[in-house]
């Protein structure tokens, strides 16, 4: 598939972001999307063909692979990239709504349609909360599906139609585990960036409200 749409989305949202938000975009684009396209996708490309069990019982190998890998790491990573980037569409849609509203009324209604204030600030904060929530959900999902953030060299399978417990071997387990750790590390970094940006915006808004009330009180 083409990842151009995700690149365009991240580029479009970049101009409405804070400095921390631009760092998040850079991390997603360079350390997640490009790594996925350039390296990770090829590592898991033939994972089913290279999964071997020490038995030739028809169907046993397929059932064991499905038991230990209910969802491919790489497909789950791709889904994670799409889902955590999707909330950014809320900001793009809100700005487009403002621009369309100005065009419909044929007058200037906002100092700048992309300025983070009022409803757009709320939308931006909601997008940050959703992105953080999705990141956490996928980390938990990875942990639950694969019994931790590890790729074993050997798995023992006794799922029917296997006649007894058989040994199955995963291809390139060390390389896959390194990329899995990298995936987890970049997800955690994105969570920290999202929470930092959320805290920064809330602090900035609270300070602005306090100063406004303070000035009005003295006037």
From TrEMBL:
Keywords on record: Cell junction, Cell membrane, Gap junction, Membrane, Transmembrane, Transmembrane helix
Every Connexin cysteine-rich domain range: 134-201
Membrane topology term: Multi-pass membrane protein
Residue ranges of domain Connexin N-terminal in the record: 42-75
Coiled-coil boundaries: none
Bilayer-spanning residue ranges: 21-39, 77-97, 118-143, 178-203
GO MF, one example: gap junction channel activity
Gene Ontology terms describing biological process: cell-cell signaling
Listed PROSITE patterns: CONNEXINS_2 (PS00408)
InterPro entries registered for this protein in UniProt: Connexin, Connexin_CCC, Connexin_CS, Connexin_N, Connexin_N_sf
Cellular-component GO terms for this entry: connexin complex
Main localization (coarse): other
Compartments, as annotated in UniProt: Cell junction, Gap junction; Cell membrane
Pfam families hit by this protein: Connexin
Complexes and interactors: A connexon is composed of a hexamer of connexins.
Family the entry assigns: Belongs to the connexin family.
The protein's role, per its UniProt record: One gap junction consists of a cluster of closely packed pairs of transmembrane channels, the connexons, through which materials of low MW diffuse from one cell to a neighboring cell.
Protein name: Gap junction protein
Species for this entry: Crotophaga sulcirostris
């Amino acid at each position: 598939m083409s990842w151009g749409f995700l690149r365009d989305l991240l580029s479009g949202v970049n101009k409405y972001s804070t400095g921390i938000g631009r760092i998040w975009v850079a991390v997603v684009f360079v350390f997640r999307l490009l790594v996925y396209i350039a390296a990770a996708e090829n590592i898991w490309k033939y994972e089913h063909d290279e999964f071997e069990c020490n038995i030739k019982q028809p169907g046993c190998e397929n059932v064991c692979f499905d038991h230990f890998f209910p969802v491919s790491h790489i497909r789950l990573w791709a889904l994670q990239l799409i889902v955590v980037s999707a909330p950014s569409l809320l900001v793009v849609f809100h700005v487009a709504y403002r621009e369309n509203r100005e065009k419909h009324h044929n007058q200037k209604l906002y100092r700048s349609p992309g300025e983070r204030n009022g409803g757009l600030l709320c939308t931006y904060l909601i997008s940050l909360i959703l992105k953080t929530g999705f990141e956490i959900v996928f980390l938990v999902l990875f942990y639950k599906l694969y019994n931790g953030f590890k790729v074993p060299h050997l798995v023992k399978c006794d799922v029917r139609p296997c006649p007894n417990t058989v040994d199955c071997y995963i291809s390139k387990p060390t390389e896959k585990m390194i990329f899995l750790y990298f995936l987890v590390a970049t997800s955690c970094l994105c969570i920290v960036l999202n929470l930092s940006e959320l805290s920064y915006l809330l602090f900035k808004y609270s300070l602005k409200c306090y100063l406004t009330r303070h000035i009005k009180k003295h006037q």
